[in-house]
Amino acid sequence: MADTVKNNRQKTDLRSPEYYINRELSWLEFNTRCLSEARNHENPLFERLKFLSITASNLDEFFMVRVASLIDMVNAGYQKKDIAGLTAEEQLKKIGKKAREFVELQYSTYNRSFLPLLLQEKLEFVEEYTDLTDDEKAFAERYYREEVFPVLTPMAVDSSRPFPLVRNRTLNMAALLKPRTDEDGNVPRLVRNAKKHEDELALVQVPSVLPRVIVLGRGEGDGSPLRIMLLENLIRYMMPGLFQRYQIQSCGTFRIMRSADLSIEEDEEGDLLKEIEKQLKKRQRSQVIRLEYESGMDKKLVRRLVDNLKVSEDARYPIDGPIDLTFLMKVYGLEGFDHLKEHGYAGPVENPAFLNPGSVFEKIAKKDILLHHPYESFDPVVAFVEEAASDPDVLAIKQTLYRVSGNSPIIASLSKAAENGKQVTVLVELKARFDEEHNILWARMLEKAGAHVIYGLVGLKTHSKITLVVRREEDGIRRYVHLGTGNYNDSTAKLYTDIGLLTCDRQTGEDATAFFNMISGYNEPASWNKLILAPLWMKKRFLDLIHRERDNALSGAESGIIAKMNSLCDPDIMEALYEASCAGVKIELIVRGICCIRTGIPGVSENISVRSIVGNFLEHARIFCFKNAGAYEIYAGSADWMPRNLDRRVEIVFPLEDEELKAKAMHILTSQLSDTEKAHIMQPDGTYARVDRRGKQPVNSQKMFGEEAEAAVKEIRNADRSTRVFIPETGQKG
Q1: Cα 502 to Cα 364, 383, 482, 611, distances in angstroms
Q2: In 3-state terms, what secondary structure has residue 688?
Q3: Rounded Cα distance, 297 and 169, in Å
Q4: Do 400 and 427 form a contact (C-beta atoms < 8 A)?
Q5: What are the backbone angles phi and psi of residue 205, rounded to the nearest 5°?
Q6: Which of 40, 152, 348, 460 could form a disulfide with 377 if both were Cys (CB 3.0 to 4.6 A apart)?
Q7: How far apart are CA 467 and CA 381, in angstroms?
Q8: What is the SS3 string spanning 142-158?
C-alpha cells in the first residue's frame, strides 16, 4: 500500500513551494487573529483593550527576533529560499507591507473605535495639557514637580555631547532647540554653537520606572468620566522648563527596536553565564531595526533622528497615536470598570484528586493525575516541590526551569531543599529569550543555597518540562515525576492553557532518572521506556506515527490524526501529513500560531483542516492523538512541530496511558474542534475566517472547560456533604 502513496508522490512534488505558507507571514496572520478579537464587538470592551495591547507586544517581539534575523541574513548575503520559495529579502518586503497595514489597523481601532467607546463608558483620555481643568493642572504640576522632574535627564546633542545611547523599546522625547537671545541679540554663554544659530537636538527618556498612565480623577458630577493622561504628554508640556536657555522649535515622541538575538559561540566559551551577561550588554547597542515616531513629527526632527540612529527608510514607522500600545494593559487594570470585563470564570479550582487533605505523594501513588491549567489550579505542582523540600524521606529533587515567575515559590522550595541537605539538581536555561537576566539571578540564588545548577547543553536549548522527586518509602525507593506542556511559572499558569501529568509509574521514573543523568553528564542510556526525546529520536517517532496512520488508511483500518500545538513548520512533518492526507487520513490540526501547511489543495490536502483558537487564555498545550486502527495513542509534551523543537532543543513528549486520562485529553481536543466562538478556520489561501455559526450550537471551549472544572468540584463537594450522617446524641456530623 505504501508503494501507491510513493507513486502518487512521484506525480506530485509535495515539497513544491506553492503548497506552503511562509513562516513569518503565517505569524502575522496569527497576530491579525488576535487583532480581530480586539475588533470583535461581542467581546467586553476592556477585553478588547487587552487584545490590542497583546498585538502590540507580539509585534515588538516579532521584529526583535524574526525580522532582525532576516536582516542579518540579507546583510550576510544569504540567498537560500524558504519552504515557500522566498528569499530573506523577499520576505522582508512582504513583511514590511503586511506590518504597515497591520499597524494602520491597530491605530484605526484605537482612534476610531476605542476612544469614543471608552468616553461613552466614562473613561476619557486627555491628550492636551490645555484641556485640563484648573484642579487637574494643579495636580499635574505637583505630580511633575515631585515625582517626574527628579527622574528626568535632558540630554543635548552637540560637538561635545554625542548622541546618547537610546535603549531598546524605551519611550523617548526628541526636540529641536534654538538658543534664546537677550535684548541685544546675544545668546547665553553656556549655550554651545551660539554663533551658528543652528537648531540643536535634545533627547529626554520617558521614565519607565514611573506609571505611564496618570489618573487625574473624576469631575464633580455623578456622570463625570474618569480622566487619564499619558506621562509623555505631561512631559511634553513641561519640556521648556528642561531647556530654559532655548526655545523649543518642535518636539515629538519616538521609540526604537533593536535585535534581541544573542551571538554566543558556546563551544568556545568556558563560562556560559558570563558570556550571556556580556552579550546582554551588547544587545542594548545592537542594530536599530525599527523606528516609530509620531506621524505629525517635524520632518527636520525625523531626519536628525534617522541620521543619528542610522535607520533605513523601510524601518521607519510613523504612528498615528500613542506609541507602544502595551500601556492599554495598565488601563485594563483601572478600578471601577469590572462591568466591561469578561465574567463567568471564577478562577482555577482544585483538581478532584486534591480536594481532600493529605500528602501529595499519597495521592500520586494512588493514581496518575492529569492537571488542566488554568481551569485546574497549578497549586499541586507548587505543593509537589514544596512538600518534597521539607519531607525527610525525600532524597533528591531534579528539575528543568525555562521561564519562572518574578517571585517564584518553586525557586524558594528548591533553595530550601538544598539548604535542608537534599540533593538538588536544577537545569536553568540561560538562553530562554527575554528571560536571560532573570534566569541568571535564579541560577546564582540556587547555587548559593547549595543546589547543583546546570546551564543547559552546548548548542541546544533545554525546553523540557520535567521534575523528578526521589523518595525513600517502606518498600524501597520510589520516583515521582511531573511532566508538563508549560513552564514552571505560577503566574503564567493562570493565563496559559497547559496540561501536566503527575505519576509514580516505574518506567517513567527510570526514564526521568536517565534524562537528568544525560543532561548532567554525558551518559546516554542504551534504551528508554516511554519518554520521547528531542533532538534524539522525537522527529523520527512522530514521522513513524504519521506513516502508520497513512498505512492504516490504505489498508482500510481506522485512521486519523488530531494534533494540537503552538506552531507547525517542520518540512518533513508537513510532507508526511500531505502523504497521509493523500492516503485518506483525516487530519485535524489545532494550531494557535504559525502554520505553514496549506489546506484544501486538490489531490494534496483535502483531508487536512487547520483551526486556531484565540480566546481569553493563551493556548499553549501540545497534545497529539493517533487513532491507530482504533487503539488510540495520545501524547503530550513540550515540543511543537518546528525544526527548532525537533532538531535544536531538548524536548520531552510523554504518553498518556490511563484510560481516564486519555479520555480527558480527547475531550480537550474534541471540544476545541467543536468551538464556534473563538475558533478561526484556515482558508485555502492561508487566511483565516471565523466559524460559520449558522445552525450550530454556540461553543466557547475555554469557557466550557472552566465551567466543567467548577461543576466537577461542586459535584464532589455536594456528594461529600450528602454522605455525612448527623448524630443527634452529640450534635456532630460524622
Answers
A1: 6, 12, 5, 29
A2: strand
A3: 19
A4: yes
A5: -80, 130
A6: 348
A7: 9
A8: HHHHHHHHHHCCCEEEC
Convert the pLDDT of each residue in 142-178 to its tens digit. Answer: 999 999 999 999 998 876 678 888 999 999 999 999 8
The catalytic site residues sit at 463
Q: Answer for the pair 514, 494: CB distance below 8 angstroms, yes or no.
A: no
Residue in the structure block whose three cell numbers are 456528594: 719
DSSP-derived 3-state class of residue 626: strand
Amino acid at the residue 575: E
In order of start, what are the domains of the chain with their CATH numbers? 2-13+534-705 (3.30.870.10), 154-272+287-327 (3.30.1840.10), 352-530 (3.30.870.10)
Q: What is the pLDDT of residue 421?
A: 94
DSSP string, 243-308: -TTEEEEEEEEEEEEE-------GGG-S-HHHHHHHHHHHHTTS-EEEEEEETTS-HHHHHHHHHH
Residues belonging to the chain: 734
Whether 310 and 290 have beta carbons less than 8 Å apart is answered as no
Task: Find how far residue 179's CA is from the centre of its chain.
Answer: 48
What confidence tens digit (pLDDT) does each residue in 43-65 have?
999 999 999 999 999 999 999 99
Cell numbers for 513: 532518572
User: Could you give the CA distance from residue 469 to residue 413 in angstroms, rounded to a whole number?
Assistant: 13
Q: What is the mean pLDDT of residues 544-559?
A: 98
31-35 long-range contacts, CB within 8 A, separation 24+: 31/55, 31/58, 31/59, 31/62, 31/102, 32/102, 32/688, 33/612, 33/614, 33/680, 33/688, 34/58, 34/614, 35/102, 35/105, 35/106, 35/109
Which run of H or E residues covers position 497? Answer: strand 496-503
Element at 22 (helix H, strand E): none
Grouping H, G, I as helix, E, B as strand and the rest as coil, residue 500 is: strand
